[in-house]
Amino acid sequence: MLNDWLYLAIFLVLCFALPAMAIGIAGILSPKKSDPIKNSIYECGPEPVGESRIQFKVQYYVYGLIFLVFDVEAVLLFPWAVAYSQLPLYAVLEAILFIAILAGGLFYAWRAGALEWQ
After folding, report:
1. Which residues contact 114 (CB under 8 A, 6 or more apart)?
2. Helices 58-82 and 89-111: crossing angle, nearest 10°?
3. Annotated domain spans of the chain
């Protein structure tokens, strides 16, 4: 019983020590040269004009989240579509339920006006 806890303690010490050592070694070995170009806001491209912190509409983030949901749906449904002919009936019904839940979420977002561009 004690050996199990010893292995866990060793594992936890290694989990914290290895990343700390990697960051420390990188800090020691990294070049220390600094110049105004490296310290500027942008390393390439045009020089910024005006305030760099502008406020975006929340709607951009809503579109991004909806895209992400349906992108994940496509990734999860791809293996199901490839193995469709080998799946039992309950797996097909679960996939249909999954699509129905996502369609319900899309319908809710549509009815709530989240997809209206203003």
Report:
1. 59, 62, 66
2. 170
3. 58-111
Record the tokens describing residue 56, joined without a space: 């975006």
Q: Considering the domain delimited by 58-111, tell me its CATH architecture.
A: Up-down Bundle (1.20)
N- to C-terminal Cα distance for the chain? Answer: 63
Quickly tell me which residue has 């910024």 as its tokens: 48
> What DSSP string runs through 23-76?
HHHHHHHS-----TTTTSS-SSSSPP-S-S--PPPHHHHHHHHHHHHHHHHHHH
Distance in angstroms (rounded) separating the CA atoms of residues 108 and 73: 17
Residue that has been written with the tokens 């983030």 in this structure: 61
Q: For the chain, what is the radius of gyration of the CA atoms?
A: 25
pLDDT digits (tens, 9 = 90+) for 4-56: 889 899 999 999 999 999 999 998 998 878 777 666 666 566 666 777 677 77
If you ran DSSP here, which 8-state letter would residue 83 be given?
T
